[in-house]
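Human: Note token order:
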Amino acid sequence: MNKQIIRKGGKPAFVVIPIEEWRRIEATLEDRADAATVRAFLQAPSETFPDEVVAAILEGTRPIKAMREHRGLTQAALARAAGTSPVYLSQIERGNRHCGRVLLAKLSRALGVPANVLAGGRD
């Protein structure tokens, strides 16, 4: 490997390497990071969601609505499980009302997902 060492104050401070070598090193580091992520997931697996759910959220669907639909629940059923009204839930899903922490926790339990997943679309 060709390298150039740049010194500052008589001590090595920087190493200059060919761009091809850097790209190889960078790819190796990314592969190792990906492998570590997979190992961590396999040691403590968590629920994953279909691409359609993630895509819907990324395209602007409120997370509560996306997760409710993924679970196959009506607004009435989720509202009943969370102790709120279907009208209020509808307003939250449309972004017309704010979902407080207490209700967010109840919706989280009813949908079986962490509250931070549902809070992702908060204004």
